[in-house]
Amino acid sequence: MLYHQTFSILSATKEARVKFSQAKVKEILADFRLAVESREASLIGRKEVFMGKAKFGIFGDGKEIAQIAMAKVFRAGDFRAGYYRDQTFMFAINELTMEQYFAQLYAHPDVEAEPASAGRQMNGHYATRMLDDQGKLKRLSELKNSSGDISPTAAQMPRLLGMAYASKLFRQNTHLSEYTDLSNEGNEIAFGTIGNASTSEGMFFEAMNAAGVLQVPMLMSVWDDEYGISVPQEFHTTKQSISKALAGFQRTETEKGFEILTVNGWDYTALIETYQKAEKICREEHVPVLVHVKEMTQPQGHSTSGSHERYKSAERLAWEVEHDCIKKMREWIIEEVLILPEEVEAIEKEAKQAAKLARENSWKAFMRDIKADQRILADILERIGSEDILDIRQTLLKTINPVHLDNVKAAKKALRLLLGRDTEERSQLIEWVSNSEKINHDRYSSHLYSETEDSALRVDVINAVYSDSSTIVDGREVLRACFDAALERDPLVLAFGEDVGKIGDVNQGFAGLQDKYGDLRVTDTGIRECTIIGQGIGLAIRGMRPIAEIQYLDYFIYALQILSDDLACIRYRTKSGQRAPLIIRTRGHRLEGVWHAGSPMGMILNSLRGIYLLVPRNMTQAAGFYNTMLKSDDPAIIIECLNGYRMKERKPDNVGEFTVPLGVPEVIKSGDDVTIVTYGSMCRIVMEAAEDLERVGISCEVIDIQTLLPFDIHHTILDSVKKTSRVVFADEDVPGGASAFMMQKVLEEQGAYQYLDAKPITITGKEHRPAYASDGDYFSKPNPEEVFEKIYGVMMEVDPGRFSPLY
Ligand SMILES: Cc1ncc(C[n+]2csc(CCOP(=O)(O)OP(=O)(O)O)c2C)c(N)n1
Ligand SMILES: [Mg+2]
Predict the structure, then answer these.
(1) For the chain, what is the mean pLDDT?
(2) What is the CA angle 572-573-575, rounded to 5?
(3) Which positions are catalytic?
(4) Which of 190, 192, 257, 322 could form a disulfide with 163 if both were Cys (CB 3.0 to 4.6 A apart)?
(5) Sorting pLDDT into bands at 50, 70 and 90, what band is 19?
(6) Cβ distance 414 to 436 under 8 Å?
(7) Ligand nearest to the CA of 200
(8) pTM of the entire structure?
(9) Whose Cα sits closest to atom 21 in ligand 1?
(10) Residue nearest to atom 20 of ligand 1 (CA)
(11) What tens digit of pLDDT does each residue of 523-561 get?
């Protein structure tokens, strides 16, 4: 049911009509009704959890009125990045129905019933569907958009910054004015919400500072209920007030900054005025605004995990009852709008009924699919008919609040009992199980990466073209030419990061490109890795093609959390309702010392599934990857080799067009005795060792995997191992890092273990960070001598007669 459309207006008294227009009265009562309905949904939701129908519940009670006020200034084209308290806001902008709200509580895995996440996220995690069924962006400028919520507190902030920054670009970069499906000349506000306690997170401060620096239309609301679960304000915030703590951000006549507004969360009229004021400043002037909404309450406590009576004093609890925003609004309606108490009661009754009915509908819909599946299974089990199978059937049918796993468990249990029996019913059961595996894969494991026609795996391969006039240049020149072509080709492409603008990055991949394309396309940022990534995520959500740079791989750790919690799962957690094809550019593997030579690939691999991980051995391969990724709708990390910028490479004639496919290793040296699997700057070290090994009669096949994610999709390595019967994995990460990942892929997934006649080994860096200078590097990371000796050792094991000990 749509808010403002379906509720039956009750007649206001004559006096009220004098003070407020009929339309205004209608609006006020609709607002009140929505608040009551939303509150009722919270109360019912809690009960559902306690009745075992849902696993966990977290609700927006106590925050209703402010959200209704905020929704009034949220227009088509705007964006939200918020948190789990925002149900009333989502109802108010008509992007969440009551049925959908309960569907998420039950974890209904149907995208129609639960469009935010198709049951993948716990309740209170909101998102609108920005992609159509083909995975193409809808006309976002005409929609009310909510980016997909995540649970880590404050992690909505980096993305929020990016979504606000997009408005600035759409307004200021005149080349973007034709993209009317993405923006209406940058008039969109990015609305953020956060709890008071979560403002203690570093990301909050980093994003707020960046928004002030960038002057972007970010309207940030803090829902302040003076607690973060059980911990009161005094533990969280200097001066116990975020607006006081941030007072220095306040803009003045002469200095740019934020506009800071404060208001109480129970004051309906003040909230409406505050948000109108905030909207005007933000939308018209592109000045960020902080709205600190104070005196909020939490009537049911933090979540279903425990009661707040444990930590709130009797006085505080009494204060909360007194300052409940709905109670206050109710009093105001009766006193000021002069609506009769009976009429208010009638509205309340109707609202509560609506919530109850929605819950019922949602539960029925949720059960329908499960029961339908259960019936099919029960029929098969019945036809089998033996006593033990009928027992399983009986138990299944008696399950209280069954879910899909109950069906699967019953079916698999029955299958075990039917081992060896070759009957028609057993075949039907096997078919049911395999069908349910497919369905459950789609429900719970699909769309980690793009499955659309724009997937990075489907980009056409265009080979690099060389001619007599192709020049030999420093590697960085190849990259620069590729970026130049990308910026020229597509106005939506932009690059930013520390030192990327004026000097064109620390290795000059963008040298001169700011002069050529302007500082909105090639841009310096502050030192703030987390929000550089957030800036990229937000821009990519809004349809732009950002290349966000993290200066060194060693500083990637600052951004790891947001990459993992937000970017890596944006498509997955919305079941392809949203995407963020952000390219992260960084450089690493080799240079100097503890914080400039890292190669923490295992860490990245294990935390960032959902983002492709590309590890080119030179700048030409890197350029090909940039070209590939810019044609796709997937996100990727491209790690350039720090020591490769000045190495000579032949620049392809089609440097802005050629593509390098993902997941396709390259055999960079063929050989017969042993397969060496490696990537990145290790390719050179391995090649050096391979040449030395050739001299002692050992023929190595060296394979550059080129991308860790995806990994060797056509099993090139397996083909090689079939030939050599020996395999070595070499990289610069710690033991058990990416080398272990590669080994698992090749031995287990590709099944190469069957073809081995020697122990498979890994050659890795030491467990510690790499030490400084040439010796530090040599003794911390794999070096050609070590590679030689390890591979020589493999051959010695195979043929001790031919290969005697080196020493
Ligand atoms: C990074 C992180 N740490 C801890 C948690 C667990 N947690 C969830 S909500 C919460 C308190 C948040 O309080 P506040 O920001 O004031 O929001 P409120 O729930 O009061 O609206 C905590 C500690 C989390 N989700 N994420
Ligand atoms: Mg709080």
Answers:
(1) 96
(2) 60
(3) 529, 596
(4) 190
(5) confident
(6) no
(7) 1
(8) 0.96
(9) 195
(10) 228
(11) 999 999 999 999 999 999 999 999 999 999 999 999 999
